[in-house]
Protein backbone atom coordinates (compact mmCIF):
# COMPACT_ATOMS: atom_id res chain seq x y z
CA UNK A 1 0.00 0.00 0.00
CA UNK A 2 1.27 3.45 -0.91
CA UNK A 3 0.69 5.92 1.90
CA UNK A 4 -1.36 8.89 0.70
CA UNK A 5 -2.11 11.78 3.05
CA UNK A 6 -3.56 15.20 2.45
CA UNK A 7 -3.77 18.64 3.98
CA UNK A 8 -6.89 20.54 3.00
CA UNK A 9 -7.06 24.10 4.35
CA UNK A 10 -9.97 26.47 3.91
CA UNK A 11 -8.97 29.84 2.37
CA UNK A 12 -10.72 31.87 5.07
CA UNK A 13 -7.65 33.71 6.43
CA UNK A 14 -3.98 33.33 7.15
CA UNK A 15 -2.51 29.97 8.06
CA UNK A 16 -2.86 29.28 11.77
CA UNK A 17 0.19 27.78 13.47
CA UNK A 18 -1.85 24.71 14.36
CA UNK A 19 -2.73 24.21 10.70
CA UNK A 20 0.90 24.53 9.66
CA UNK A 21 1.84 21.92 12.27
CA UNK A 22 -0.84 19.59 10.84
CA UNK A 23 0.49 20.08 7.30
CA UNK A 24 4.03 19.39 8.50
CA UNK A 25 3.06 16.17 10.28
CA UNK A 26 1.32 14.95 7.12
CA UNK A 27 4.38 15.83 5.03
CA UNK A 28 6.80 14.11 7.43
CA UNK A 29 4.58 11.01 7.68
CA UNK A 30 4.39 10.72 3.89
CA UNK A 31 8.12 11.12 3.44
CA UNK A 32 8.91 8.69 6.27
CA UNK A 33 6.82 5.99 4.59
CA UNK A 34 7.81 6.80 1.01
CA UNK A 35 4.28 8.00 0.30
CA UNK A 36 2.55 10.99 -1.27
CA UNK A 37 1.39 14.27 0.21
CA UNK A 38 -1.59 16.02 -1.41
CA UNK A 39 -2.55 19.68 -0.99
CA UNK A 40 -6.29 20.22 -1.48
CA UNK A 41 -8.31 23.42 -1.07
CA UNK A 42 -11.62 23.19 0.78
CA UNK A 43 -13.18 26.39 -0.49
CA UNK A 44 -16.86 25.48 -0.06
CA UNK A 45 -17.46 28.10 2.66
CA UNK A 46 -17.90 30.74 -0.01
CA UNK A 47 -19.12 33.46 2.36
CA UNK A 48 -15.88 33.37 4.37
CA UNK A 49 -13.31 32.77 1.63
CA UNK A 50 -10.58 35.42 1.51
CA UNK A 51 -9.23 36.37 -1.89
CA UNK A 52 -5.55 35.51 -2.22
CA UNK A 53 -5.46 33.26 0.85
CA UNK A 54 -4.71 30.22 -1.32
CA UNK A 55 -1.64 31.94 -2.77
CA UNK A 56 -0.45 32.81 0.75
CA UNK A 57 -0.77 29.13 1.70
CA UNK A 58 1.44 28.12 -1.23
CA UNK A 59 4.01 30.83 -0.48
CA UNK A 60 4.13 29.86 3.19
CA UNK A 61 4.61 26.17 2.51
CA UNK A 62 7.26 26.81 -0.11
CA UNK A 63 9.16 29.04 2.32
CA UNK A 64 9.00 26.34 4.97
CA UNK A 65 10.17 23.70 2.51
CA UNK A 66 7.00 21.61 2.77
CA UNK A 67 6.67 20.00 -0.66
CA UNK A 68 3.55 18.35 -2.06
CA UNK A 69 3.19 15.76 -4.80
CA UNK A 70 -0.29 16.73 -6.01
CA UNK A 71 -2.31 19.85 -5.40
CA UNK A 72 -4.49 22.69 -6.55
CA UNK A 73 -1.52 24.48 -8.12
CA UNK A 74 0.36 21.55 -9.69
CA UNK A 75 -2.52 19.22 -10.52
CA UNK A 76 -2.28 15.45 -10.40
CA UNK A 77 -4.17 12.28 -11.36
CA UNK A 78 -7.27 13.25 -9.36
CA UNK A 79 -7.66 16.82 -10.49
CA UNK A 80 -9.32 19.18 -9.74
CA UNK A 81 -8.04 19.77 -6.21
CA UNK A 82 -10.30 22.74 -5.43
CA UNK A 83 -13.56 21.58 -3.90
CA UNK A 84 -15.72 24.15 -5.67
CA UNK A 85 -14.47 22.70 -8.98
CA UNK A 86 -15.63 19.23 -7.90
CA UNK A 87 -19.35 19.91 -7.48
CA UNK A 88 -20.29 17.59 -10.37
CA UNK A 89 -18.42 14.76 -8.67
CA UNK A 90 -20.25 15.33 -5.40
CA UNK A 91 -23.57 15.44 -7.24
CA UNK A 92 -23.09 11.91 -8.52
CA UNK A 93 -22.61 10.61 -5.00
CA UNK A 94 -25.57 12.61 -3.68
CA UNK A 95 -27.85 11.29 -6.39
CA UNK A 96 -26.82 7.74 -5.50
CA UNK A 97 -27.71 8.26 -1.82
CA UNK A 98 -31.11 9.69 -2.81
CA UNK A 99 -31.81 6.77 -5.16
CA UNK A 100 -30.87 4.25 -2.47
CA UNK A 101 -33.01 5.94 0.18
CA UNK A 102 -30.03 6.87 2.34
CA UNK A 103 -30.69 10.61 2.17
CA UNK A 104 -33.69 12.91 1.69
CA UNK A 105 -34.59 16.56 1.03
CA UNK A 106 -35.28 18.63 4.14
CA UNK A 107 -37.45 21.75 3.92
CA UNK A 108 -37.01 22.92 7.52
CA UNK A 109 -36.16 26.59 7.83
CA UNK A 110 -33.60 28.11 10.16
CA UNK A 111 -36.45 29.15 12.45
CA UNK A 112 -37.80 25.58 12.52
CA UNK A 113 -34.40 24.21 13.48
CA UNK A 114 -33.81 26.90 16.10
CA UNK A 115 -37.15 26.05 17.72
CA UNK A 116 -36.15 22.36 17.87
CA UNK A 117 -32.80 23.22 19.46
CA UNK A 118 -34.40 25.47 22.03
CA UNK A 119 -36.94 22.82 23.00
CA UNK A 120 -34.22 20.18 23.37
CA UNK A 121 -32.22 22.48 25.62
CA UNK A 122 -35.27 23.19 27.77
CA UNK A 123 -35.83 19.45 28.15
CA UNK A 124 -32.16 18.75 28.90
CA UNK A 125 -31.61 16.74 25.72
CA UNK A 126 -28.68 16.89 23.31
CA UNK A 127 -29.97 18.95 20.36
CA UNK A 128 -30.32 16.88 17.21
CA UNK A 129 -32.61 16.98 14.23
CA UNK A 130 -36.02 15.43 14.89
CA UNK A 131 -36.33 13.86 11.43
CA UNK A 132 -39.59 15.64 10.64
CA UNK A 133 -38.88 15.70 6.87
CA UNK A 134 -37.58 12.13 6.75
CA UNK A 135 -40.98 10.51 6.25
CA UNK A 136 -42.65 13.03 3.94
CA UNK A 137 -44.54 11.34 1.07
CA UNK A 138 -42.51 11.26 -2.11
CA UNK A 139 -45.19 13.10 -4.05
CA UNK A 140 -45.14 15.94 -1.52
CA UNK A 141 -41.37 16.15 -1.70
CA UNK A 142 -41.45 16.33 -5.48
CA UNK A 143 -44.15 18.98 -5.40
CA UNK A 144 -42.29 21.19 -2.92
CA UNK A 145 -39.04 20.85 -4.81
CA UNK A 146 -40.74 21.66 -8.11
CA UNK A 147 -42.27 24.80 -6.61
CA UNK A 148 -38.79 26.15 -5.89
CA UNK A 149 -39.01 25.82 -2.12
CA UNK A 150 -35.49 25.89 -0.63
CA UNK A 151 -34.26 22.59 0.76
CA UNK A 152 -31.14 20.92 2.05
CA UNK A 153 -30.29 17.23 1.85
CA UNK A 154 -29.89 15.16 4.99
CA UNK A 155 -28.15 11.85 5.52
CA UNK A 156 -30.19 9.17 7.33
CA UNK A 157 -28.65 8.02 10.61
CA UNK A 158 -30.12 4.88 12.09
CA UNK A 159 -30.63 5.11 15.87
CA UNK A 160 -29.18 2.82 18.49
CA UNK A 161 -25.76 2.32 16.92
CA UNK A 162 -22.34 2.57 18.53
CA UNK A 163 -19.80 4.15 16.18
CA UNK A 164 -16.18 3.44 17.02
CA UNK A 165 -13.31 5.55 15.69
CA UNK A 166 -10.06 3.58 15.64
CA UNK A 167 -7.60 6.41 16.21
CA UNK A 168 -3.88 5.80 15.79
CA UNK A 169 -3.06 8.26 18.58
CA UNK A 170 -6.01 8.00 20.97
CA UNK A 171 -7.05 4.40 20.56
CA UNK A 172 -10.73 3.51 20.16
CA UNK A 173 -13.19 6.36 20.73
CA UNK A 174 -16.93 5.56 20.82
CA UNK A 175 -19.88 7.69 19.76
CA UNK A 176 -23.63 7.02 19.80
CA UNK A 177 -25.70 7.54 16.68
CA UNK A 178 -28.57 8.73 18.87
CA UNK A 179 -26.49 11.84 19.66
CA UNK A 180 -26.01 12.66 15.99
CA UNK A 181 -29.35 12.50 14.21
CA UNK A 182 -29.88 12.95 10.49
CA UNK A 183 -27.28 15.53 9.42
CA UNK A 184 -27.10 17.90 6.47
CA UNK A 185 -24.81 16.83 3.63
CA UNK A 186 -25.89 19.47 1.09
CA UNK A 187 -26.85 23.02 2.02
CA UNK A 188 -29.79 24.81 0.47
CA UNK A 189 -27.40 26.61 -1.91
CA UNK A 190 -26.43 23.25 -3.41
CA UNK A 191 -22.93 23.17 -1.90
CA UNK A 192 -22.04 20.03 0.08
CA UNK A 193 -21.07 20.28 3.73
CA UNK A 194 -17.63 19.45 5.03
CA UNK A 195 -18.56 16.08 6.53
CA UNK A 196 -19.81 14.85 3.16
CA UNK A 197 -17.41 16.55 0.77
CA UNK A 198 -14.29 15.50 2.66
CA UNK A 199 -15.27 11.83 2.51
CA UNK A 200 -15.95 11.91 -1.21
CA UNK A 201 -12.63 13.62 -1.90
CA UNK A 202 -10.73 11.16 0.30
CA UNK A 203 -12.42 8.20 -1.45
CA UNK A 204 -11.74 9.60 -4.91
CA UNK A 205 -8.11 10.47 -4.10
CA UNK A 206 -7.39 7.15 -2.36
CA UNK A 207 -6.31 8.75 0.91
CA UNK A 208 -4.95 6.09 3.26
CA UNK A 209 -4.37 8.15 6.41
CA UNK A 210 -6.19 11.23 7.70
CA UNK A 211 -3.93 13.16 10.08
CA UNK A 212 -5.69 16.22 11.40
CA UNK A 213 -6.48 18.35 14.44
CA UNK A 214 -8.18 16.96 17.53
CA UNK A 215 -11.18 19.23 16.96
CA UNK A 216 -12.18 17.05 14.00
CA UNK A 217 -12.54 13.91 16.13
CA UNK A 218 -16.22 14.64 16.75
CA UNK A 219 -16.79 14.86 12.97
CA UNK A 220 -15.39 11.41 12.37
CA UNK A 221 -18.46 9.28 13.25
CA UNK A 222 -20.53 11.17 10.67
CA UNK A 223 -17.82 10.59 8.11
CA UNK A 224 -17.63 6.89 8.97
CA UNK A 225 -21.34 6.63 8.20
CA UNK A 226 -20.80 8.19 4.78
CA UNK A 227 -17.96 5.77 4.02
CA UNK A 228 -20.24 2.92 5.05
CA UNK A 229 -23.07 4.16 2.83
CA UNK A 230 -20.84 3.84 -0.21
CA UNK A 231 -19.24 0.57 0.84
CA UNK A 232 -15.84 2.28 1.05
CA UNK A 233 -13.06 1.37 3.48
CA UNK A 234 -12.29 4.39 5.64
CA UNK A 235 -8.70 5.60 5.97
CA UNK A 236 -6.74 5.30 9.21
CA UNK A 237 -7.41 8.31 11.43
CA UNK A 238 -4.95 10.16 13.67
CA UNK A 239 -6.13 13.21 15.59
CA UNK A 240 -3.29 15.45 16.71
CA UNK A 241 -3.12 17.10 20.13
CA UNK A 242 -4.42 20.63 20.31
CA UNK A 243 -1.91 23.51 20.29
CA UNK A 244 -2.12 25.55 23.50
CA UNK A 245 -0.89 28.99 24.47
CA UNK A 246 1.35 29.54 27.48
CA UNK A 247 -1.72 29.71 29.76
CA UNK A 248 -2.61 26.23 28.44
CA UNK A 249 -5.69 27.51 26.62
CA UNK A 250 -6.40 26.78 22.96
CA UNK A 251 -4.08 28.89 20.86
CA UNK A 252 -5.99 31.72 19.21
CA UNK A 253 -5.30 33.08 15.73
CA UNK A 254 -5.26 36.49 17.39
CA UNK A 255 -2.69 35.59 20.07
CA UNK A 256 -0.26 38.54 20.02
CA UNK A 257 2.67 36.25 20.84
CA UNK A 258 2.14 34.12 17.73
CA UNK A 259 2.49 35.69 14.30
CA UNK A 260 1.23 34.55 10.90
CA UNK A 261 3.77 32.46 9.00
CA UNK A 262 4.13 35.21 6.38
CA UNK A 263 5.18 37.64 9.12
CA UNK A 264 7.90 35.35 10.42
CA UNK A 265 9.12 35.02 6.86
CA UNK A 266 9.15 38.79 6.30
CA UNK A 267 11.09 39.32 9.55
CA UNK A 268 13.87 37.06 8.33
CA UNK A 269 13.42 34.00 10.50
CA UNK A 270 14.96 30.83 9.10
CA UNK A 271 12.39 28.28 7.89
CA UNK A 272 14.54 25.41 9.18
CA UNK A 273 14.09 26.74 12.71
CA UNK A 274 10.32 26.83 12.29
CA UNK A 275 10.14 23.32 10.88
CA UNK A 276 12.25 22.05 13.78
CA UNK A 277 10.11 23.87 16.38
CA UNK A 278 6.76 22.78 14.91
CA UNK A 279 7.90 19.17 14.54
CA UNK A 280 8.43 19.01 18.30
CA UNK A 281 5.02 20.53 19.00
CA UNK A 282 3.29 17.33 20.08
CA UNK A 283 5.84 14.81 18.78
CA UNK A 284 8.93 13.54 20.56
CA UNK A 285 11.80 11.70 18.87
CA UNK A 286 13.13 10.46 22.21
CA UNK A 287 16.58 11.27 23.58
CA UNK A 288 18.10 14.67 24.29
CA UNK A 289 18.63 15.97 20.76
CA UNK A 290 16.58 19.08 19.96
CA UNK A 291 17.93 20.33 16.64
CA UNK A 292 17.06 18.30 13.54
CA UNK A 293 17.42 18.78 9.82
CA UNK A 294 14.38 18.16 7.64
CA UNK A 295 15.95 14.92 6.40
CA UNK A 296 16.42 13.75 9.98
CA UNK A 297 12.81 14.58 10.79
CA UNK A 298 11.57 12.64 7.75
CA UNK A 299 13.64 9.65 8.82
CA UNK A 300 12.53 9.72 12.48
CA UNK A 301 8.91 10.88 12.37
CA UNK A 302 6.03 8.50 12.95
CA UNK A 303 2.70 8.66 14.72
CA UNK A 304 3.62 6.30 17.55
CA UNK A 305 5.49 9.12 19.32
CA UNK A 306 2.77 11.76 18.95
CA UNK A 307 1.25 12.58 22.33
CA UNK A 308 -2.40 12.83 23.31
CA UNK A 309 -2.21 15.87 25.58
CA UNK A 310 -2.10 19.46 24.35
CA UNK A 311 1.19 20.86 23.06
CA UNK A 312 2.18 24.30 24.39
CA UNK A 313 3.44 26.89 21.92
CA UNK A 314 6.45 27.99 23.97
CA UNK A 315 7.54 31.37 22.59
CA UNK A 316 10.76 31.29 24.60
CA UNK A 317 11.63 27.89 23.11
CA UNK A 318 10.90 29.18 19.61
CA UNK A 319 13.17 32.17 20.19
CA UNK A 320 15.94 29.92 21.51
CA UNK A 321 15.66 27.60 18.52
CA UNK A 322 15.51 30.48 16.03
CA UNK A 323 18.67 31.89 17.60
CA UNK A 324 20.46 28.53 17.36
CA UNK A 325 19.83 28.42 13.64
CA UNK A 326 20.53 32.08 12.92
CA UNK A 327 23.83 32.25 14.74
CA UNK A 328 24.99 29.13 12.85
CA UNK A 329 24.58 30.87 9.47
CA UNK A 330 27.63 31.85 7.45
CA UNK A 331 28.01 35.55 8.16
CA UNK A 332 27.75 36.41 4.46
CA UNK A 333 24.29 34.81 4.29
CA UNK A 334 23.19 36.52 7.50
CA UNK A 335 24.39 39.85 6.10
CA UNK A 336 22.40 39.35 2.89
CA UNK A 337 19.27 38.72 4.94
CA UNK A 338 20.01 41.77 7.08
CA UNK A 339 20.50 43.90 3.97
CA UNK A 340 16.99 42.96 2.83
CA UNK A 341 15.62 44.14 6.18
CA UNK A 342 17.56 47.40 5.99
CA UNK A 343 16.36 48.05 2.44
CA UNK A 344 12.78 47.32 3.43
CA UNK A 345 13.07 49.75 6.36
CA UNK A 346 14.65 52.42 4.15
CA UNK A 347 17.94 52.34 6.05
CA UNK A 348 21.07 52.90 4.00
CA UNK A 349 24.66 52.07 4.88
CA UNK A 350 26.87 54.89 6.20
CA UNK A 351 28.95 56.73 3.61
CA UNK A 352 32.15 54.93 4.55
CA UNK A 353 30.55 51.45 4.53
CA UNK A 354 30.33 48.63 2.01
CA UNK A 355 29.15 44.99 2.03
CA UNK A 356 32.27 43.83 3.84
CA UNK A 357 31.65 46.44 6.53
CA UNK A 358 28.07 45.20 6.92
CA UNK A 359 29.26 41.62 7.35
CA UNK A 360 31.62 42.74 10.11
CA UNK A 361 28.86 44.63 11.90
CA UNK A 362 26.48 41.68 11.55
CA UNK A 363 29.14 39.44 13.08
CA UNK A 364 29.04 41.59 16.23
CA UNK A 365 25.36 40.82 16.82
CA UNK A 366 24.68 37.52 15.08
CA UNK A 367 25.09 35.36 18.18
CA UNK A 368 22.17 37.16 19.82
CA UNK A 369 19.81 37.32 16.84
CA UNK A 370 16.66 35.26 16.29
CA UNK A 371 15.99 36.72 12.86
CA UNK A 372 17.42 39.24 10.45
CA UNK A 373 15.04 41.96 11.62
CA UNK A 374 16.55 41.89 15.12
CA UNK A 375 19.63 43.58 13.66
CA UNK A 376 17.82 46.88 13.06
CA UNK A 377 17.20 47.55 16.75
CA UNK A 378 20.41 45.96 18.00
CA UNK A 379 22.73 47.90 15.68
CA UNK A 380 21.20 51.37 15.81
CA UNK A 381 24.47 52.87 17.00
CA UNK A 382 25.96 52.25 13.53
CA UNK A 383 23.12 53.86 11.60
CA UNK A 384 22.28 57.02 13.56
CA UNK A 385 24.25 60.23 14.02
CA UNK A 386 22.76 61.18 17.36
CA UNK A 387 23.30 59.01 20.42
CA UNK A 388 20.43 58.44 22.84
CA UNK A 389 22.11 57.94 26.22
CA UNK A 390 20.46 55.62 28.69
CA UNK A 391 20.07 56.89 32.26
CA UNK A 392 22.87 54.75 33.66
CA UNK A 393 25.20 55.96 30.89
CA UNK A 394 24.40 59.58 31.75
CA UNK A 395 25.12 58.95 35.42
CA UNK A 396 28.47 57.35 34.57
CA UNK A 397 29.52 60.18 32.29
CA UNK A 398 29.04 62.68 35.13
CA UNK A 399 31.77 60.94 37.09
CA UNK A 400 35.05 62.94 36.93
CA UNK A 401 37.22 59.84 36.44
CA UNK A 402 34.99 58.61 33.61
CA UNK A 403 35.13 62.01 31.91
CA UNK A 404 38.90 62.06 32.13
CA UNK A 405 39.03 58.65 30.41
CA UNK A 406 36.81 59.89 27.58
CA UNK A 407 38.88 63.06 27.23
CA UNK A 408 42.13 61.11 27.08
CA UNK A 409 40.80 58.60 24.56
CA UNK A 410 39.40 61.43 22.43
CA UNK A 411 42.77 63.14 22.39
CA UNK A 412 44.41 59.99 21.05
CA UNK A 413 41.67 59.62 18.41
CA UNK A 414 42.50 63.06 17.09
CA UNK A 415 46.10 62.13 16.43
CA UNK A 416 46.69 62.19 12.71
CA UNK A 417 48.08 59.35 10.64
CA UNK A 418 46.93 56.52 12.87
CA UNK A 419 45.33 53.40 11.41
CA UNK A 420 41.63 53.08 12.26
CA UNK A 421 41.50 49.43 13.30
CA UNK A 422 40.52 47.38 16.35
CA UNK A 423 44.21 46.80 17.13
CA UNK A 424 44.92 50.52 16.92
CA UNK A 425 42.05 51.14 19.33
CA UNK A 426 43.57 48.69 21.82
CA UNK A 427 46.82 50.63 21.64
CA UNK A 428 44.98 53.86 22.35
CA UNK A 429 43.41 52.32 25.44
CA UNK A 430 46.83 51.14 26.60
CA UNK A 431 48.07 54.70 26.42
CA UNK A 432 45.05 55.96 28.38
CA UNK A 433 45.68 53.27 30.98
CA UNK A 434 49.32 54.33 31.26
CA UNK A 435 48.37 58.00 31.48
CA UNK A 436 45.56 57.68 34.07
CA UNK A 437 46.28 54.43 35.86
CA UNK A 438 42.76 53.04 35.27
CA UNK A 439 41.89 49.60 33.92
CA UNK A 440 39.06 47.15 33.31
CA UNK A 441 35.56 48.54 33.43
CA UNK A 442 36.78 51.98 34.55
CA UNK A 443 38.80 52.14 31.36
CA UNK A 444 36.41 50.80 28.77
CA UNK A 445 32.90 51.50 30.06
CA UNK A 446 33.06 55.33 29.91
CA UNK A 447 34.11 55.25 26.24
CA UNK A 448 31.35 52.75 25.41
CA UNK A 449 28.78 54.90 27.22
CA UNK A 450 29.91 58.00 25.32
CA UNK A 451 29.91 56.26 21.94
CA UNK A 452 26.75 54.16 22.15
CA UNK A 453 24.72 55.55 25.06
CA UNK A 454 24.86 52.12 26.72
CA UNK A 455 27.07 50.44 29.29
CA UNK A 456 27.04 47.04 27.60
CA UNK A 457 27.28 45.82 24.03
CA UNK A 458 29.38 43.87 21.53
CA UNK A 459 33.17 43.93 21.27
CA UNK A 460 34.17 47.55 21.92
CA UNK A 461 37.37 47.58 19.85
CA UNK A 462 35.57 46.21 16.79
CA UNK A 463 32.70 48.66 17.35
CA UNK A 464 35.11 51.60 17.38
CA UNK A 465 36.91 50.34 14.28
CA UNK A 466 33.63 49.98 12.37
CA UNK A 467 32.48 53.46 13.31
CA UNK A 468 34.37 56.03 11.26
CA UNK A 469 37.00 58.18 12.95
CA UNK A 470 34.86 61.23 12.30
CA UNK A 471 31.81 59.70 13.98
CA UNK A 472 33.80 58.58 17.04
CA UNK A 473 35.29 62.03 17.52
CA UNK A 474 31.88 63.67 17.12
CA UNK A 475 30.22 61.38 19.65
CA UNK A 476 32.93 61.60 22.28
CA UNK A 477 32.93 65.37 21.94
CA UNK A 478 29.12 65.49 22.26
CA UNK A 479 29.21 63.30 25.36
CA UNK A 480 31.73 65.60 27.03
CA UNK A 481 29.76 68.68 26.00
CA UNK A 482 26.60 67.22 27.50
- Could you give the order of strands across the largest sheet? 1-2-3
| CATH topology-level fold name of the largest domain | Rossmann fold
Structural class of the secondary elements? mainly alpha
Counting copies of identical and different chains, the oligomeric state is single chain
**N- to C-terminal separation?**
77 Å
The radius of gyration over CA amounts to 32 Å
CATH class of the largest domain: Alpha Beta
Number of helices: 20
Low-pLDDT segments: none
* Biggest sheet layout: 3 strands, parallel
Q: What would the principal axes of the Cα set say about the shape? A: elongated
Give me the CATH architecture of the largest domain, please. Answer: 3-Layer(aba) Sandwich
Percent of residues in β-strands: 5-15%
Q: Considering DSSP H and I runs of 4 or more, what fraction of the residues is helical?
A: 40-55%
Tally of individual domains: 4
Number of strands: 12
CATH superfamily of the largest domain: HUPs
Overall pLDDT level: 95
Characterize this entry briefly.
It contains 20 helices and twelve strands.
Structural write-up:
This protein has 482 residues and is mainly α. It folds into four domains: 86-240, HUPs (Rossmann fold, 3-Layer(aba) Sandwich); 261-327, Orthogonal Bundle (Glutamyl-tRNA Synthetase, domain 2), CATH 1.10.1160.10; 330-383, Glutamate-tRNA synthetase, class I, anticodon-binding domain 1 (Helicase, Ruva Protein, domain 3), CATH 1.10.8.70; 384-482, Arc Repressor Mutant, subunit A (Orthogonal Bundle), CATH 1.10.10.350. It contains 20 helices and twelve strands. The chain has helices spanning 17-32, 53-64, 87-99, 110-122, 138-146, 194-204, 220-229, 261-266, 271-279, 294-300, 315-327, 331-344, 355-365, 374-378, 391-397, 400-413, 422-436, 441-452, 460-466, 469-481, and strands at 4-7, 36-39, 70-71, 103-106, 152-155, 162-167, 171-176, 183-186, 209-213, 236-240, 243-244, 311-312. The strands form five sheets. It has a three-stranded parallel sheet with strand order 1-2-3. Strands 4-5-8 form a three-stranded antiparallel sheet. Helix 12 (331-344) crosses helix 13 (355-365) and helix 16 runs antiparallel to helix 20 (469-481). The longest helix has 16 residues, at 17-32. It starts with a strand and ends with a helix. The mean pLDDT is 95.
Amino acid sequence: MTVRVRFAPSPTGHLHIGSVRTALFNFLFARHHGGQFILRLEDTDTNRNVEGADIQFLDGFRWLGIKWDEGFDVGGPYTPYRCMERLDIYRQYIDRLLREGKAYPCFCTDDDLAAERNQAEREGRIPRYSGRCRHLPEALRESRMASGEPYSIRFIVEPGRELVVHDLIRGDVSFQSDDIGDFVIVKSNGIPTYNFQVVIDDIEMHITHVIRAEEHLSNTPRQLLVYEAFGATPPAFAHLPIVLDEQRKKLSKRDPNVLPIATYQSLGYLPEAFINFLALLGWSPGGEQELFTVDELCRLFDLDRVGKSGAVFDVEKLNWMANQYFKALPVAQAARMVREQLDRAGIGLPAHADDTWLEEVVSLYQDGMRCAHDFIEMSKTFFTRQVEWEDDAIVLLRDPTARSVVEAYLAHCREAGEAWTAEASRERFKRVQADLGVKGRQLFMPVRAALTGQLHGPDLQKTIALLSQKVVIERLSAALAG
